[in-house]
Write a structure and sequence with these properties.
The chain contains two helices and eleven strands, in the order E-E-H-H-E-E-E-E-E-E-E-E-E. By secondary structure, the protein is mostly beta strands.
Length: 193
C-alpha cells in the first residue's frame, strides 16, 4: 500500500509505519469533520425555564434525603461553585455585593436503576441559613425509558452571600399526581480564583 512501509523490530516482528505526510495530514483532519461548526445548524425552540415560589422554610428544612417512588429510592445531589476568575468588566453593571453562584444538580435513583416513568421536576431551591433562593428549572420528566437521573444547571441565584454551603431541595411530581420534596444537605460551595 502506498505510504505504508514495513519496519523490522528488534524482536524479529514487523510493524507498519506511515512514511508520507499527506496521509498524516488527512488522518489529522478527519476528526474535524465531526465538529459542530461543520454540521448544519438545527433550530430548536428555546427551553422555557421557570421559577416556583418556595414552600415554607420549615417544609424545606424537614424534607427527607431520599424518597421512595414505586420501588425506586430517589435522592438529589448538587455541585455548586463561585467563579472569581478575572474577566472583562461589564460597563454599567451594578451587581449587589457578593458573587454569582453556578452549579449543577440532579435527581437520581440511589441504586442506578431507571427512575419511574412520569416522575417530574417541579421546582428547586437552595436553602442557606434562613434564606431561600429559587432556581430556574426547565420542565422535565422521566418519559424516556431507562433514565436513572434528571440533571439540570443550577441557575437563578445571581449573587451568593458568601456562605460555605447550602442545602438543595427539589420538588418532584410523582406519577400518581402528588408532589414530594427531597433534600441534599450541606452542599459545599467551592470558589475558583
Amino acid at each position: 500500500m502506498p505510504g505504508i512501509e514495513k519496519v523490522a523490530l528488534e524482536d524479529g516482528c514487523t510493524a507498519a509505519r506511515m512514511v508520507t505526510m499527506p496521509l498524516l495530514l488527512i488522518a489529522g483532519l478527519l476528526p474535524l469533520a465531526a465538529c459542530d461548526w461543520m454540521q448544519p445548524r438545527v433550530e430548536r425552540p428555546p427551553v422555557q425555564e421557570f421559577r416556583v415560589p418556595p414552600p415554607p422554610l420549615e417544609a424545606l428544612v424537614a424534607a427527607p434525603e431520599t424518597i421512595v417512588v414505586g420501588d425506586v429510592h430517589v435522592a438529589a445531589a448538587a455541585t455548586l461553585w463561585i467563579d472569581r476568575m478575572p474577566g472583562p468588566a461589564i460597563e454599567g453593571r451594578n451587581d449587589p455585593p457578593g458573587d454569582p453562584l453556578q452549579g449543577h444538580f440532579d435527581v437520581h435513583s440511589v441504586d442506578g436503576r431507571p427512575l419511574p416513568r412520569g416522575l417530574r421536576l417541579e421546582g428547586a431551591w437552595l436553602v442557606g441559613a434562613d434564606s431561600v433562593w429559587p432556581l430556574a428549572v426547565a420542565p422535565s420528566d422521566t418519559s424516556r425509558a431507562g433514565s436513572p437521573w434528571i440533571a439540570r444547571r443550577a441557575r437563578g441565584v445571581p449573587v451568593w452571600p458568601g456562605e460555605q454551603s447550602a442545602d438543595l431541595v427539589v420538588r418532584l411530581g410523582r406519577p400518581d399526581g402528588t408532589s414530594q420534596l427531597v433534600r441534599t444537605r450541606s452542599v459545599p460551595v467551592t470558589v475558583a480564583e
